[in-house]
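Notes from hallway chat w/ T.B., transcribed later so I don't forget. T.B. wanted the structure written out for a chain they're using in a teaching module, and asked if we could keep both sequence and C-alpha cells in one place. Agreed to drop them here.
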Amino acid sequence: MNPAIRELPRAVLVDLDDTLVDGSAVVDCWNVACESCPPGVDSQAVLAEILRLRDWYWSDPVRHREGRLDLSAARRHIAGLALANIGVDAPGLADRIAERYDECRDERTVLFPDAVRILTWLRESECRLALVTNGAAAMQRQKIARFQLEPFFDAIFVEGELGFGKPDERIYHLALTALAVEPRDTWMIGDNLEWDVEQPQRLGITGIWVDRTGAGVPASSAVRPDLVVRSLADLPAYCR
C-alpha cells in the first residue's frame, strides 16, 4: 500500500509524454497509416510487421535515443524495413506510411484531463516546478506551446536542446540547480520507471510513478517507486 506523503515538497520535476500529454494511440495510428498501402499490398501484413519491428527498434537504448530525437526518420526506417521484410517493393510507400502516422499522432495527441488541474494545484501550493522531457527540441516545444504549459513551470529542460536527457544525471542536477532545491526536497513525477523513478531516487529525489494502465511494477523490475498513482488526480489524496 502506498504510504501517505504528508507534506508537499519544495519542488517537483514533471515528465511530459504519457504523464501530462496522452500519446497512447500508437497501434491505432499505425493502423491508420497502413491504409496508405495501395491495392495489392496487404495492409494488415504490413501493420503486423511494423508492430513487430517497432518493439525491436525501441528495445535498444542506443536506437531509442537516436530515434526519439528524430521520430519521423525512425518511423520511416521501421516502415521501410517492414515492407522489405514482407517482400513489398513500392517506392515512396514507407515515406507515405510514416507521414500519415505523424499526422495521426498529432491529431490524437491530447492533454490528460487531470494535467492542468494538478499543475495548478502544485503552483497554488507554492511548489516550484520544472518540466524535464526527452525528445527532439522542435517536437517537444510544439507540444508545450500547443497545450499552453510553459506558464506553469519555473524551468523547462528538453533533451534535444541540451544534448542529453533522462536518465543522464546531469539533467536532474540542472533542474535542481535551476529551482534552487536539494534532492531531499524534490519529487520527480513520470511514467517511466527508469527515467522518472530509479535514477531520481539514486540522487535522493522522491520518485513517483504514474501507472495509468494499472499494470503495476513488472515482477522483473527491481525499481520500487516511493509512490504509485493511477493518474495525476490521485496525488492530493496522499498530501495532507
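Follow-up for T.B.: Residues 72 and 99 are 7 Å apart (CA to CA). Might be a good example for the class.
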